[in-house]
Amino acid sequence: xxxxxxxxxxxxxxxxxxxxxxxxxxxxxxxxxxxxxxxxxxxxxxxxxxxxxxxxxxxxxxxxxxxxxxxxxxxxxxxxxxxxxxxxxxxxxxxxxxxxxxxxxxxxxxxxxxxxxxxxxxxxxxxxxxxxxxxxxxxxxxxxxxxxxxxxxxxxxxxxxxxxxxxxxxxxxxxxxxxxxxxxxxxxxxxxxxxxxxxxx
Length: 201
What we know:
The protein is an alpha/beta fold. It has nine helices and five strands. Helix 1 crosses helix 9 (180-200), helix 4 packs across helix 5 (79-103) and helix 6 packs across helix 7 (150-159). A five-stranded parallel beta sheet has the order 2-3-1-4-5, sandwiched between helices. The chain folds into two domains: 1-28 and 106-201, Rossmann fold (3-Layer(aba) Sandwich), CATH 3.40.50; 37-102, no CATH class. Pathway: Cofactor biosynthesis; coenzyme A biosynthesis; CoA from (R)-pantothenate: step 5/5. Its EC number is 2.7.1.24.
């Protein structure tokens, strides 16, 4: 792919959405792995049909949509089921990501993925931008946003790549400890830099 691709990631509650929404406002195409992950199991898809065949009808509601919480519970309790679902979904998600990256029409394109590094999606990217906050901030923001327990957030943080490793793999780091204005100023500088890099590609 000749287009300049920026991978954007960060731990839960770091502000990935705020960052990617701001970059999108600058006219840059965003490919969101979370959105694609939902699309590949939407009603009528091959992905959902396989899930129903494997887990049974109890993982879908009356309208035929996937009940994510039920599937998550099944997968969480059974490592074999987790392996099975990853084997099914990762290739489908990756295929869609690549298709959307190729279709993007902007100066550069951003691939937003919480598990960019964990799932090896950084291999598709020219640079990796990490939105970084400390763990206390992650806990506070996620609890407030999702109304979930501290334990639940801690379990999610523990399941993600650890902060030092994430920072080591980053080409660029934006600290999101401050307010949105501070975040946007850092992103403005990087956006100008990425436009230059994209023009050279």
